[in-house]
Amino acid sequence: MDNSYDKNSLLRNAANYGLILGLTIIIYTLILQFTGNVQNPVAGWASFIFMAVAVSIGTKNLRDKFQSGYISYGRAVGSGMLIVVSASLIQAFFIYVFYKYISPDSLQELFTNMEDAMMQNGSTDQEIEVSMKMMRAYTGPLTLAFSAIFGSAFWGLVISLISAIFVKREKNIFED
C-alpha cells in the first residue's frame, strides 16, 4: 500500500473543497433567485462549471500536498466524488431550509412556471391538472433536497471520471 496515502487528508481535503463548492453554489443560487434568473437554462450550467473546477483543483491539491505529487485514477475519482458529496449535503440542507422556511413562495412560483410551460406546449387542461396534482404531491422541500443529492452525485461522478484523467499522476515503478 502507498504510504503517502492518508485517509484523514483525503476526507479533510474533500470537506474543505466540498464546503467551498457548496457555498459557491448556494451564493450563485441566491443571486439567480434574487435576479429572477432561476429558470434560465444557461445560468444553470454554471453549477457544472463550479463543480468541475472544485473537483479538479481539490483533487490536484490532494495529489500535490498530501500524496507526494502522485495520485491514481481511482483515488482521483474517489476524491472528486467525496468533494461533490460534501457539497451536495450542504446544498441539500440549504434547499430544504430555503423552500421550507425562507421562501416557500418560490416553490409555488416553480409550479406556476411549470404550468405555464405545459400550456405553451399545448397540453390539455386535464393533462395539466393531473400533472400539477402529481407534482404538488411529490415535490416539496424534502424531495427537492434529496433530488439535489442524487443529481449532484450523478453529475459529480461524470465530472470526477473525466477530471481524474487529467489530474492522475502515477508513480513510475522504477522510482524510489
Structural account:
The protein has 176 residues and is mainly α. It has a domain at 7-100 and 146-167. The protein has helices at residues 7-35, 41-44, 46-66, 73-102, 104-120, 125-138, 141-167. It starts with 6 loop residues before the first helix and ends in a 9-residue tail after the last helix.
SSE arrangement:
Blueprint: H1 7-35, H2 41-44, H3 46-66, H4 73-102, H5 104-120, H6 125-138, H7 141-167
Helix pairs in contact: 1-3, 1-4, 3-4, 3-7, 4-5, 4-7, 5-6
Offer a concise description of the structure.
This protein has helices spanning 7-35, 41-44, 46-66, 73-102, 104-120, 125-138, 141-167. With 176 residues, the chain is mainly alpha-helical.
* Largest sheet report: none
Please count the helical segments: 7
What are the low-pLDDT stretches, counting only 5+ consecutive residues below 50? none
What characteristic shape results from the CA principal axes? elongated
Radius of gyration: 20 Å
Distance between the termini: 14 Å
User: How helix-rich are the residues, as a percent range?
Assistant: over 70%
